[in-house]
Amino acid sequence: MHGIATMCRVLGVSPGGYYARQKRPPSARAQTDVELSARIAAIHRRSRQTYGVPRIYAELQAQGLRVGRKRVARLMNTAGLYGVSRRNERSACHCAVVARYSSPPPRVAAFRRSSREIVEGARPSLRAIAHTPCS
């Protein structure tokens, strides 16, 4: 490891400024973040560790706390908390999942990447299959 003086010189900070910062108490925002993180963790535990950012944000709003959604996301990320998604990870549409694992019908139209023309009988890309409307 490097010494404090070397690191301060590289970063353009005086060693006195570094040590003064070490002695300072945490800022008001940092203290609020600690309290808010505890509330977020309690809500997350109460939800059996299923709530994600949107629901925890809504819960905090219902409790009367004025806090930003991105701040909740940052604090959850820092604490290693995440919500549980009940959806299928691959796709929300059944036909896209079926089309992904079976061979495509012979008359499905696909987009040619170069000219964006529709080509009949060509094997469609996965993107074209996923954007095919369900019937």
Q: What are its keywords?
A:
135 residues; 52% helix; two-stranded antiparallel sheet; 2 strands; mainly alpha; 2 domains
Class by helix and strand content? mainly alpha
- The proportion of strand residues reads under 5%
Low-confidence stretches: 106-118
Can you tell me the number of structural domains?
2
Distance between the termini: 63 Å
Largest sheet composition:
2 strands, antiparallel
Range of helix content: 40-55%
By DSSP, the count of extended strands is: 2
Element order: H for helix, E for strand: HHHHHHEEH
Tell me the strand order in the biggest sheet.
1-2
Mean model confidence by pLDDT = 79
Shape: elongated
Number of helical segments with 4 or more residues: 7
Counting copies of identical and different chains, the oligomeric state is single chain
* Computed Rg: 26 Å
Can you characterise this structure?
By secondary structure, the chain is an all-alpha fold. The protein has two domains: 26-86; 94-130, no CATH class. Helices cover 52% and strands 3% of the residues. The protein is built from seven helices and two strands. It has a two-stranded antiparallel sheet with strand order 1-2. A hairpin with a 6-residue loop joins strand 1 (110-111) and strand 2 (118-119). The longest helix has 19 residues, at 28-46.
Report a brief summary of the structure.
The chain is mainly alpha-helical.
Task: Note the topology.
Elements: H1 4-11, H2 15-23, H3 28-46, H4 53-62, H5 69-79, H6 94-101, E1 110-111, E2 118-119, H7 126-130
Antiparallel strand pairs: 1-2
Helix pairs in contact: 3-5, 4-5
